[in-house]
Design brief:
about 150 residues; 3-stranded mixed beta sheet; 5-stranded antiparallel beta sheet; about 20% helix; alpha+beta
Length: about 150
């Protein structure tokens, strides 16, 4: 089986002088290698092709056969690395909390393994008949939510 760390090292070489970043590398038991990259401005197919060729040139098919797929982290897919959170500051996101509650709001900030989302909630104000919508900042730890993902509007 192809070593995941070897693939990560090869991808790291290719990324060295680029603004892309590695999101994930998966290697299945049948040597299906899936590499996900991302960029603040999106991923170009030409760059995926270039990275694919770069990886293929450094792995020996005579030694071990493999299937290779290089692509971008899908739009609307959960964030996997801090840089994805950072690239989406100021944008609408959806968070699924550990207890199964879905929240929608604007990603306000990222600090280490924590992030803050500004959500709107209805609050009863004393002396008023109707509740008012107020903004509230909610802080989460990345490893304590089921997911956080970009919420694109169509």
């Amino acid at each position: 089986m192809i070593d995941k760390n070897v693939v990560k090292g090869i991808v790291g070489e290719w990324l060295a002088d680029k603004d892309y970043f590695l999101v994930d590398v998966e290697v299945s038991t049948d040597n299906r290698v899936v590499v996900e990259i991302d960029h603040a401005d999106g991923v170009w197919i030409e760059d995926c092709v270039e990275l694919s060729r770069f990886i293929e040139d450094r792995l020996d098919r005579d030694d071990e056969d493999f299937e290779l797929e290089v692509g971008s982290a899908g739009l609307g897919q959960p964030f996997k690395v801090v840089q994805q959170y950072e690239n989406h500051i100021g944008k609408d996101v959806e968070v699924l909390t550990a207890d199964g509650k879905k929240l929608k709001g604007v990603l306000k900030s990222v600090d280490g393994d924590k992030f803050v989302v500004t959500v709107e909630e209805k609050v009863r104000v004393e002396g008023k008949k109707r509740p008012e919508i107020q903004q509230k900042d909610m802080e989460f730890k990345m490893d304590e939510v089921k997911y956080c993902k970009y919420l694109f509007q169509v």
